[in-house]
Amino acid sequence: MTLPPRWIKLYRDFQAQGDRLAPVVLAMIFGQVCVIAITGSYATLTRDISRAYTQTKPASGILDIGAVDNALVDRVRAMEDVKDAEALTIIHTRTRKPNGSFGRGLLFVSRSPENQRIGRQQVEQTFPVDGPSVRLERRSVAVAETEIGGSVTFDLPDIGFTDLAVAGTVFDPALAPADQEQAIYAYMDTDTWFALGGGPLEMLEVRVAGDVTDQQHVDTTLTRVAQQLRETGSTVHLVRIPQAETHPHQNQMTTVLMFFLGFGTIAFLLSAFLISVSIEGLMVQQIRQIGVMKAIGARASQIRMLYLIGVALLGLAALVVALPVGQQIGALLSKVVSSLLNFDLTTTTPPVSLLIFWITTGMAVPVLFALRPLTRAANLPVIAAINDQGINAPRPLPKFIARLTGSGVGRLAVDGLNRNVARSLLIIGLLASAGAVTLTARNVSASFETSITIAAEERKHDLDVRLTVPVDRAAALKIARELGAELRDLPLVLEAAPARDDGLAVVRTYPDGGHGALTVLALENFASLAHLVPLVGHLDAGPMTGIILNQSAHRLLGNPVVGDEVSLSLDGKLLLLPLTAVVREYMSPARAYVAAADLKDQVGFEGTNSLRFVAPGGNHYLTDIEMRLELLGSGVKSTFDENQMAEAVSGHINIFIVILTSLGIMIAVVGFAGLTAAQGISVTERRREFGVIRAIGARRGQILSMLLCEGLSYWFVALVLAVLLSMPLSLLIDGLIGRMTFGMPLPFTLDGLAFLLWAGVSLAGTLLASTPPGIAAVRASVTTSLAHQ
Amino acid sequence: MPPKSVWRLSAQNLSRVYQCGSGRVKALDDVSLDINKGEFIAVTGRSGSGKTTLINMLAGLDRASEGTIQTADGTKINKLDEEELARWRGRNVGIVFQFYQLLPSLTVLENTLLPMDLCGVHPKVGRRDHAMSLLNDLGINEHASKLPRDLSGGQQQRAAIARALVNDPDVVFADEPTGNLDSTTAMAVMELFAAQAAKGKAVIMVTHDLDLAPYFSRIITLGDGRIVAEKAKAA
Ligand SMILES: Nc1ncnc2c1ncn2[C@@H]1O[C@H](COP(=O)(O)OP(=O)(O)O)[C@@H](O)[C@H]1O
Ligand SMILES: [Mg+2]
Known about the structure:
The complex is a heterodimer of chains A (789) and B (235). Chain A has three domains: 1-58 and 251-390, no CATH class; 61-240, no CATH class; 460-648, no CATH class. In chain A, 54% of the residues lie in helices and 19% in strands. Chain A is elongated and about 100 Å long. The two termini of chain A are 32 Å apart. Chain B has a single domain, classed as Rossmann fold, CATH 3.40.50.300. The longest helix of chain B has 16 residues, at 183-198. Bound molecules: adenosine-5'-diphosphate (ADP) and magnesium ion. Magnesium ion is lined by residues 51-52 of chain B.
């Protein structure tokens, strides 16, 4: 069986146009690869992050009760809507690394960590050890700078620094990755804990019955449990309820993937738009033949269908490459992200529905974009089509441009631009959007860097020593004086929650205490805040009044206005103060500043538990501090130095910077592929015309320089547009990411170096895309150029 | 249904006005004409007299500004929409152009098969044989698998005629089909057309060449878009 002649024609014509179609198909492949890789890994990652998190049977909430015994656990288990309950203690403490430096540690103590009913971990490796031991979360081993069978040193409350053997690793996908948080997660059973002299377990993990993903249901159940416990005489200090059944970094990941999806779609649409323009170029060559086919009986619908199927087949051809490549890249992306976020993938095979989606969009989108030029060509009246000469005159230039450009090579270049406005716009659009995205990526990265710099400058202290028990301020000052250390501040730092009518303190936070917490800092005076930028209200000198919130806290508390009473719950006690001002604090969790006197009056807490030193060059007097604190009946709970502060921030931020930059590169690649294709088509289409120009005396060099002129005009216009576009885009993304991470836009920053780099790279790219087709066009002899159809 | 009447194409009061730039050109002015089975009609006249315009109207390639074109079974072809018109052309009309207009990427055989493929008039299995026998009749069967660019002008015109005849149309239009051919080749092509007319097809040909006059059963002369003379050969 042979192919019907019209299909033979389509096949041969496509074959003959191979050099023009190849870059188009390449651009299609690239667009499809972007979409396939991103949607594929989106599907894989969102499915597996939930699966990994859900599989641990995470606590719906954790109640901080102070002392939990078996009877209490049993009682809670029997309560309405409670599926299960289990006692544990989460100790936030510091650790000492082998090199003597301090780190952050989270010790989870429960009856039997290997057999958790709630918050299950998977045991991964086991090593026989003697003495008190813990298992480490698999990603904490590197943070602790130790190994399995080695040891970690935890500062245990009322016990002191204790060497604990590392008896193995577990995988706990419910926690934010240890390396991103710069924390050591360790798990200890109660036998070990009691043998070391530890007190009773303090917290109660509760998993609700019914729909665990229903936040409202989870919230009401847990507050009801808390109230019932309170009625029976227990003190509930704090109720921690994380986002229902959601991994702590799931939103971060979704946002990142959404960015990917957005940019992937842009890349795909750019490539589809390129198809539209290329098909238009192709149809120009076919108009006369279409006229002939119609004369001998072809219907316009037949012609349209013929070429539409042709385009769909091009899409299919691109898919043949794009499917496996896109899937591989998607799988790679999934692996990178899942390992960044510490969860395992079940499979990277896409669901069938996605496969169908890829194949249909891969074919349908090019068809949709080719529809207009195809329909136009197919509907042209027969006689007009048969008489088509192939040269369509450029539309007349506006007079002033014509006068400006004269009649030389410059004029020809402008005519070239003017001839096919759609194609010129496409080329400029491709370059401009690639530039805009790249510049935006760099600008946003620069904004991050600016905000980190501002945050570092505004911090004003280099070392924060947190105490286990508050000490008298005068005593703390005395220690500093004796050591010759400069104390910048000595606040009392407390964990707080928005106050509720029922008096419970409920916070939306994860077991690690981060991610959504609200901290109150009680200060002697506001002088140490004077350098902060107020967003709302004033920071008046003089006696300290009311409460000052940073923007994160302001948002967390429902954006109160100045003068509004802000009520906070501190360990079950109410703090009520009018809002004085909102200050800007980049890279900072939610914080509220109050006068120490007010805190003492209303809640009764006093003293300081956070010594903030100006200590350039390290923390050499830590041991001295420690000894003196012990005399005061306190101790060091944790230390946080410059490096740790920087690392904790960059752990969350670098991922954005890397992703934004790679998105910029991705769009730039599509941009240049498109540019090459569009320039190739535009030049081939004009070969005949070049022949005419040369026949009347133009030299090859003149035509080549005309083409280069044209390329340079594209480059220049695109560069200007890219800069103009990148500004609102940078502002937008600065706003989105900033608001998501710490409640206000990132400080808008332009990256001048990136601009220079892009200007250079895009110039090189434009010349590279324009020169080869230009040389090919002028190398042909005049007669072959003239004969060119 | 009336019994299928004898084939005939009649044009009444055809006019065609071109809008060009600011002016209007009346390329065809109130032309009426009947074309019957077996006629071999020549349309002559000076350049610009409206010959091409007339046969484009009659072949359904272009639309008249005024007037009607009707077949014996009552089809008013100027009332058909574009799709119906294309189908009508494909099934009822053969067209031969001055510059052959073969599709360059298809072989002679494939070009000949194309109208059948487009209109589906012939059962699929017989198409190849049908086209080959036609090419055989026209004496170019040995060039069937060549591309048009490898053929001489006369061979290309024969291929174009094969393409025009392959759907067995009632009428064949040819716009200066011999204009590009040397006189010997032109004579041979004329013989082919005459043979078609003898078989009962109507053939309408635009020509300048008065040497060809003996072939025609009727000669229509146009001047400024009007029929200025009409001469029928005595039967
Ligand atoms: N598409 C067109 N637009 C404007 N005028 C046209 C067009 N086609 C033909 N004409 C004009 O109509 C007249 C008749 O043209 P045509 O039918 O081609 O003549 P012929 O075939 O006898 O040489 C001429 O004056 C010609 O200039
Ligand atoms: Mg003519």
